[in-house]
Specification:
The chain has 11 helices and 10 strands. The chain has about 260 residues and is of the alpha/beta class. The chain has 2 domains: about 200 residues, 2-enoyl-CoA Hydratase, Chain A, domain 1; about 45 residues, Lyase 2-enoyl-coa Hydratase, Chain  A, domain 2. The strands form 2 sheets. Strands 1-2-3-5-7-10 form a 6-stranded mixed sheet, with helices on both faces. The longest helix has 19 residues. The structure holds acetoacetyl-coenzyme A. Acetoacetyl-coenzyme A (CAA) binds next to helix 2, strand 6 and helix 4.
Length: about 260
């Protein structure tokens, strides 16, 4: 699959890295990047051999410095709405992939970049990372889900402060806010992502898939319905070969060999 703004690198069996690759524009999300992301995410969703996706930005400086300001400066209201809708749809597809998606934030994650990172399942940040929703500086509001995902991650008051002031936060503050799960030295970012990806890839594939499904789909349900969904999925997993193997391996005091069935 040939892309001009993305790179897809299979790092190890089951572990794929997707890199937004426009370093000269700090990996800004142009309409072309969004179109290529649509294609890439569809291909990833269809690849049953994948276990974990790592998402990062090319170069030393930026994860993604936002939606492309040059492109947005020319957009009519209808084009702006369409741009926002397409990005929202592809971010949602990324979020609902049947495998964990980890953002490796190596630098600026601003505007659409912060929104892309938040559409991943969790974020590992380098100590050089900076996060923010600076859209108000440009006379616009976040348009790729920032007002919603930031609020769900850090709470209403903190989200409002960041969205209304446009203030950028460094990695340590982002960690304290609950926006990122881990902060590591820049040189260790990929190694930390791979360490987590390997842990996941060693678990039962069906169990990981449905654990993610429950968290993603359950969070917007009321507690009773969300817990019932969990009970239903728990029952479903009792029918898998992976459950039989995982429990047999525990009782026989040996590592499990999961088949994903
Ligand atoms: N869109 C398009 N181009 C961008 C860009 C963006 N979001 N961010 C950076 N670039 C380009 C710059 O124009 C510059 O290009 P040239 O070399 O051709 O001039 C190149 O990337 C390098 O950037 P700087 O020279 O500005 O680098 P710097 O180190 O001085 O500053 C920065 C880095 C603080 C991240 C600065 O580039 C910046 O503030 N960028 C914009 C950040 C921003 O406002 N993001 C939000 C966009 S709006 C949005 O995302 C809306 C939404 O939710 C959908």
């Amino acid at each position: 699959m040939g892309f001009s703004t993305l790179e897809l690198d299979p790092l190890e069996p089951g572990i794929l890295r997707l890199t937004i690759n426009r370093p000269k524009a700090l990996n800004a999300l142009s309409p072309e990047v969004i179109a290529e992301l649509e294609e890439a995410v569809a291909a990833i969703a269809a690849d049953a051999a994948l276990r974990v996706l790592l998402v990062t930005g090319a170069g030393e400086k930026a994860f993604v410095a936002g939606a492309d300001i040059a492109a947005m400066s020319q957009m009519t209201p209808l084009e702006g709405r369409e741009f926002s809708n397409r990005a929202l749809a592809v971010f949602r597809s990324l979020e609902l992939l049947p495998i964990p998606v980890i953002a490796l934030v190596n630098g600026y994650a601003l505007g659409g970049g912060c929104e892309l990172a938040m559409a991943c399942d969790w974020i590992i940040a380098s100590d050089k990372a900076q996060f923010g929703q600076p859209e108000v500086n440009l006379g616009i509001c976040p348009g790729f889900g920032g007002t919603q995902r930031l609020t769900r991650l850090v709470g209403r008051a903190r989200a409002l402060e960041l969205v209304c002031t446009g203030r950028q936060v460094k990695a340590e503050e982002a960690y304290a806010l609950g926006l990122v799960n881990h902060v590591v030295p820049a040189a260790d970012l990929l190694a930390k992502g791979l360490e987590q990806a390997r842990l996941i890839a060693a678990k039962g594939p069906v169990a990981v898939k449905y654990a993610k499904h429950l968290v993603q789909r359950g969070q917007d349900l009321d507690l009773d319905n969300a817990c019932q969904l969990e009970a239903d999925v728990f029952g479903l997993l009792c029918a898998t070969e992976d459950k039989a193997e995982g429990m047999r391996a525990f009782l026989e005091k040996r590592p499990a060999k999961f088949s994903g069935r």
